[in-house]
Every structure is written in structure tokens, then in C-alpha cells.
Amino acid sequence: MPGTLHIVPCSKALHFHRIISLDVPPTLFEIERAVGGPIKLIAGFDSFIRQGELEPCFVFCNEHAELRELPPNTWANLLWLQALVRTHGFAEAGSPKVIRGPIALLWGDAPFFEALKYNKSETPNVPTHNSIQ
């Protein structure tokens, strides 16, 4: 069940980019550590292009990033807008809120992704109650 946690830092800290291979889905604590605090699921950020292939994913950011005045995350915002355009088309994608601070982007093989979906809906490991719209 191989999966990946890709920590995408905000633009001012690109040297902290990290890609971590996982055998099991991460815990809530591990995701919070990656983004520096309580997490929010980023609504509509459900895929990205990796090595020319569309990958399903879950993406989280710091719930208090705006309050803490964290800088915008240029890479995360670009990837998010691409996901919204893929889902809704260019005209309907709209202009989402700005993602600030680091993000935790999670993807993997089918069993890993299914385990993430299970955790997302059935356990407190990956909460769904907070999301950026």
C-alpha cells in the first residue's frame, strides 16, 4: 500500500520541499505537523498531474493560516486552480480563496487512496468538517 506525503511549502521556503514515502496513511498528528497546526481539507483540490498522469489526491492546509498571516503558497494555488479547471471547466472554476502556508498533498496506489478515503469518512485521522471553499 505505498503512498506519498508531499509537503509543499509556501513560496518563501521552497528549500523545505519534502516528499515522504509512506506504507500506511498518515495520522492526524503527522498531517498537522506537516502544515504547522490544525488542518483543513482543501475543497476541490482532488487531483494533480504527476509524470504526465492524473493522480487523485487529498490536500490539507493549516486551518489558521490566514489568521496567522502566513504567506500565500504560489505552487499550491496553481495546482488547486488546475484541479478546479479540470473539474468545472475554465469558465466555471471561479477564483477560489488563496491557500496560505504549507500544504500536505497525499496520493498513492489504489489501496492507499482507499484507506485515505476510509479514514476521511470513518475515523478522526483525516477530518472533513473544515474545508476551504
Main sheet specs:
6 strands, mixed
Tally of contiguous helical segments: 3
Strand content: 25-35%
Mean pLDDT: 82
Strand order of the largest sheet: 2-1-7-6-3-8
Ends apart, CA distance between termini: 30 Å
Strand-pairing-aware structural class: alpha+beta
Helix content: 25-40%
**Secondary structure: number of strands:** 8
Coarse shape: globular
Order of helices and strands: EEHEEEEHEHE
- Count structural domains: 1
Uncertain spans: 121-133
Integer-rounded radius of gyration: 14 Å
Give me a quick take on this structure:
By secondary structure, the chain is an alpha+beta fold.
Explained architecture:
The chain is α+β, with helices and mostly antiparallel strands and 133 residues long. Helices cover 27% and strands 27% of the residues. The protein has helices spanning 28-35, 74-88, 110-122, and strands at 3-8, 18-22, 39-42, 47-50, 53-56, 58-62, 103-108, 131-132. The longest helix has 15 residues, at 74-88.
